[in-house]
Amino acid sequence: MTRRRAWAAVWAGIVLVLATPVPADAHALLASSDPADGTRLDEPPAEIVLSFTEAPELSLSEVSLLDGSGATLEVGEPAAVPGEPGALSVRVPGLEQGVYTVTWRTVSKVDGHPSGGTFAFGVGVSPLQVPPAHAPTVETPEPSPLEMTGRLILFIGLGLLVGATWVGSLVFVVCPWPVRRVAGWAWAVAVAGLVILAVAQQQSSGVGFAEFLPTTPGRALLYRAGAIALAGTALLGAALWPGSRRALLLVAGVAAAGAMFAHVAAGHAAARGDLAWAKVISQWVHFVAVGVWLGGLAALLLGVRGKPSALKAAAVRRFSAVAAYALGAVAVTGVLRAVNEVGSWGALFSTGYGQLVLVKVGLIGALAVLGGINRWRNVPKADGSLRALRRVSSGELVLAVGAMAAAAVLATLVPPAQIPPVVRPPA
What we know:
There is one protein chain. The protein contains 11 helices and 9 strands. The chain is an alpha+beta fold. The strands form 2 sheets. Strands 2-9-8-4-5 form a 5-stranded mixed sheet, with no helix packed on it. Strands 1-3-7-6 form a 4-stranded antiparallel sheet, with no helix packed on it. The radius of gyration is 25 Å and the shape is elongated. Residues 9-26 and 422-427 have low confidence and may be disordered.
């Protein structure tokens, strides 16, 4: 298969994955409610409390209450519940005997994904015996293909930027022009990905940008934008002041890693649970290591184009030594995060999330095999020939895009470990 056909096959697979609907809810799933769904109460409640698997954004949350006739009753604004960051409450008026329907919609404060639903309870009567009024349909939307696309483009841009900047400043004695150029293109790709992600999350929130940006998900986008802007400023400085180019490229790489940290802190790893910051750091190390390994590999291939030489061979050896550690970091942190998010062997095979994790593991395993071939067979030959190194490395990059596509889709799905158990209402 030619390189062009290989890339076409990978991109066709990515498009297929991103365009295929995946049965999943959003991430702020309703874990419990008080009153619970299907409950018969002897006394009317003073408030309704909704508890979620992730902290809800109060300013983007809506709760409505319908009586047995379908009329909407006036309730209070969603408020925080002291000591329970994953819950919100609304005050309700004095309720008479009857069945009441609650409809709710919220946006996760952690990752900006929307969710919604409906449940019913009764005062003096059981909602299982007296049908509740017909309520407007409130459903959790499917994962957004636009958001998946934005995340994939952002992943690729930041990964290439981290790779190109460390390779350009530390691997080569003098940073080759093609490496500086790919760093600039990587920055532009990261900007495009962030813009697409911002539009997708704003559309999912149901409000305009003026209302969305002050929220926690909106501020997370601004943090990423600030880090990417700093990286762009450093790249511009590297182009204008060659004497400081090495240091400025490192600044750009650190800023790109900072954007990755802001991105991880607004995702699954930061969800409620024990050792949330340890999970964030583990995921961040995973992303940075991918950038060092695979983004750096792309930059290296551009930097060693042409005939082999002693300088190019030395650069290949320096890169290979660091890439081996980066590969180890990818493997270790990937396993840790998969165990935490999947939760069980059964979920690994029975859920769409778990199956996609297996796909990603398979791709990374194949990448590791190709990386080993390069390190132990092709790197020692770099003084005399770079042909085999380039051929195997091209295969690595093709597989890498597929692994990044899988990661982008995983970021929009619910990890099985975060799905609350189904509670059956009393008969």
